[in-house]
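Researcher: Predict the fold of HNH endonuclease.
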Amino acid sequence: MRTLVLNAGYEPLAVVTFRRALLLVLTGKASVLAEDPDPVVGPSDVVGRPSVILLHRYIHIPHRGPASVTRRGVLRRDGFRCAYCGRSASTVDHVHPRSLGGADSWENLVACCLSCNGRKGNRTLNQLGWKLKTQPSVPHGPACYIRDLDRPAEAWDPFLQSTAA
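Model: Structure tokens for HNH endonuclease follow.
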């Protein structure tokens, strides 16, 4: 079980185990904003299992440069959707092929399904007459640095949507 930790300003800070979250709540460092339906049953207590917690003190995050380009990061940024056809994506493609001088950058990499990746091959979009459904860009905000946000729990949605804007 995973728990979303929100900073005192309600921005996502981390994803931790429910045990770590429970420890933060029981020591008075955080409060529970959402709970899972199945509680934690101890020898003498029954406690709600936290799904989202809010820290009482603001944790200052030092300024970070742009996130490193990774396959998982590109897939997460594009919502696991193919940039060419919109179907489910499982791989990454260079918009401008590497063999033609394309870089491994956020602006040149997009999520892609295996079918479109095979059809595109070593050609540019102009050669194929294709257009991108979304323009690739560098992801911003604290959420791009947090692992496990590519598989968010349903209880996290209201807290993640407010930071997406």
